[in-house]
Amino acid sequence: MKAIEIADGIFRVAANIGSKELFEGIWPIPEGVSLNTYLVKGEKTALIDLVKDWDDALDQVNEQLAAAGSSIESIDYLIINHMEPDHTGWLSEMKEKNPGLKIYCSKKAVPLVKAFYKIEENVFAVGSGDSLDLGNGKVLVFEDIPNVHWPETMATFEKSTGILFPCDAFGSYGQVNEHVFDDQLTPEEEKFYEEETLRYYANIVSTFSGFVTKAIKKLSDLDIKVIAPSHGIIWRKNPSKIVEAYQKLASYHNGPAEKEITFIWSSMYGNTEKMVEPIIKAVEAEGVKINVHRVPQEHVSFALADAWKSAGLIFGMPTYEYRMFPPMANVLDIFDRSHVKSRKVFRFGSYGWSGGAQKQFQEMTEGLKWECIEPVEWQGRADEETVEKAINQAKELARQIKAL
Ligand code: FEO
Hints:
By secondary structure, the chain is α/β, with parallel strands linked by helices. The chain contains eleven helices and 22 strands. The protein has helices at residues 57-67, 91-97, 110-117, 187-205, 209-219, 239-251, 276-285, 300-309, 326-337, 357-364, 384-402; strands spanning 4-7, 10-17, 22-23, 27-28, 33-41, 45-48, 77-80, 102-106, 123-126, 131-135, 138-144, 154-158, 163-165, 226-227, 258-265, 289-294, 310-316, 319-320, 323-324, 344-351, 371-372, 376-379.
């Protein structure tokens, strides 16, 4: 990958991370992810955000810095918008190679720089409205955007070009190759980044949706011409498109989301599985889109993305040792952490000697403000009457979703 000059003296210097990694150690990234840093050259030089020693990220970035006429040793200022190690992992090595480096970060990030990297010298706290003049017309202005996606996060705005560097905000999963800017994308690539934005948002940002809305409001005072996040593509033709997309995703926080149903199911010996096909057909018969995921065969990351955008949820799972089938308990734990709130919900499932899944299901979802219609449970294999009952409940849920 080459360093890309996005404006006079401002370069995207980035690394593509491969598909074998887990983002944050938990989320699969089958299409990889990009880690973007930005080099701003005035009389002095600043680097905005870093990368972590992941795959060959350091080689990629070193090579591009050299191509842009710079190096890790010659950077004057490092701007840390966000402390998560995907953007700071290289810091100890950078500081070793560049002992005079001045670090600018938010007030809340200062103790984290010390805690993570044992660096205290030349660390300067900045807050909303503070600026750093690099000379030659390049001025960086800082804006706190807490909890997008950790409490210490800020965004950096370059005044002369109107480029916003918001770190995680407005980012996505997915490697970025030849086409770096929104106006270069093919329709297939547009769809790809739309899907990768949804899953990225649902996986790592959704919990903080209230803060996303606040950040968008705060940043609207700036005359933003380009949005250059630290993951994903750069928005130079239509930056409002990604802002609107984030606004919409944040609005799903308390529902209603889209008129779709996400159906997540699991089965031990096939007795719950037998109900899957009839349920799918019942929802489709009502003309409602249904997204189907099976756990643990599929990682919860994907079900979460669909659930985040769906107004309706269906869960099919058996009882296991007097409680829910464990992979489904994990799904609900993740949904709780991710604040998948205010959905319309139906649950069904089989049990052997005793029930118990429904009780735990109710306990785990208590705080999520879900409107649950009557569940359907049965012992052993479902008879025709039970299948009919479950079909009717699925249709009822679908009708409720249509009526939103
Ligand atoms: Fe890309 Fe919250 O780190």
